[in-house]
Amino acid sequence: MASLLGFYACESMDDNYKQYLGEYNYSGKIDSLRVYPGYERVVLAWDNPKDQKSIAIRILYGPDSTEVIYNEMVDSVSIDGLEAGTGYEFIVYTMDKHGNLSVPTSVTAFPISSSFVDALTPPSLVIEVKDNEQVISLLGLSNVMMRFSGKIKYKVEAPGGYTFNGSLDLSHMLKVTNPTTGVTEFITLPEASLPVAALGLGVDFFPPGSYKFSYSVSVWPIQGNQASIDEVWLDRETTVEVQPIIINVTSLGGTVSDQHNTTGGEGILKLVDGDINSKYLCWSNTTWMMFKTNEPAIVTRYSMTSANDASGRDPKDWVLEASNDGSSWVTLDERSNITFPMRFQTQTFEIAGNSTLYQYYRLRVTRNNGASIFQLAEWTLFGPKLK
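and the corresponding structure tokens:
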């Protein structure tokens, strides 16, 4: 009896072993099972077997072993409605016409849950001035938990009841061409600055005031170092107090001159060339320097940068004057006993209360720091953007 039982037990084990060796010729096993997480779903993909027996796909998943059967040999499916923010095991079989199953193949996946998306921080918005241009900057577009996918929708509520709506597609900013291979590669964009004039709002810049911004940004959530295949939208509202746009008036163009008609390698043109390594120098301890703007401008501050040589040549006492005809002058600012402790040091001086347009600005230096000659690396005028 014992021998007989042993014989049947061995025969049963042998049958099972032969089944998976293919002696019974059941459905073939899928290969290269892959998973792509999405928002409350996953996409499964695989390579189907070459056998002629397989006619259907069976998938089991979740704690309750939810079953899904596809009555054809699909090689990718989307499993939707996965709300829990936990891992799901997916077991994939092929089936033959008798319902016999192949050897299973399994994978664990973590779909992006709504709670995960709710924990993401929408990017912040600031309005700033770059290169004399007012820009809207979005900060924190991408981080370790998400990657900006390129789309923005926005609404701007401006003072006076004006409302602007629009959308942007910045996906082109996420692509770069490898100069070596010529292949297009995708990059992560942590922040972006967009000129207000380029937003299509019909304005070149926002005048001072309180503005409400409501905006949505599309991102790919990242979980376990794998980005979602689905975009999600992050919404935010913020109120921004827009300040006057202070721009470099000198950079808008004009003509510069001085009392001594100084030319050459250290002539008056070096005073407004934007390079602190060059300088204006004249063989006198007093002088005036004048800048005539291409168009009248309001100047509310100015800066001066010390040059490379001896500090005795630096300005110490001066008067800033303005005019609209180059003859009648108004004093805007007056300083005395100013020192520049360091070389190439820039100091900025505010002009209180000026709101008048002038075309001529003159810096009249009445005393330097004791040398017989005068020098200054840069003189720059600043004021509000007017158009």
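(Above: one complete record from the training split.) The chain has three domains: 2-111, 116-243, 248-384.
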